[in-house]
Amino acid sequence: MSIEIKIRKNEPVDRAIRRLKKKLERENVIKDVRAKRYFEKPCQKRRRKEKVMAFTQMLRRRHAD
After folding, report:
1. Helices (DSSP H) in the chain: which residue ranges?
2. pLDDT of residue 46
3. What residue ranges do the domains of the chain occupy?
């Protein structure tokens, strides 16, 4: 998997780096790398996912009105 960013004519390098970071974030590359940095037991993964689901459901209920 390779991600390429072509620097446009007269574009500052800072802006190209920002575009690269956004592209990496959209494709969840950074998220995957951080998740795989350390081993996580299957039960810990399940608990974390359940916690996230409970939080999102709470937000949906709160803002449903």
Report:
1. 13-26, 29-35, 42-62
2. 96
3. 13-62
Counting Cα atoms < 13 Å in the Cβ hemisphere of 10 gives 0
- C-alpha torsion 8→9→10→12, nearest 10: 20
DSSP state of 6: P
pLDDT digits (tens, 9 = 90+) for 9-54: 999 999 999 999 999 999 999 889 998 999 999 999 999 999 999 9
pLDDT score for 54: 97
* Token pair for 46: 């399940």
Which amino acid, 44?
Q
Joined together, the tokens standing for residue 7 give 């620097």
Residue 4 and residue 27 in contact, taking contact as beta carbons nearer than 8 Å: no
Question: Greater confidence, 12 or 1?
Answer: 12
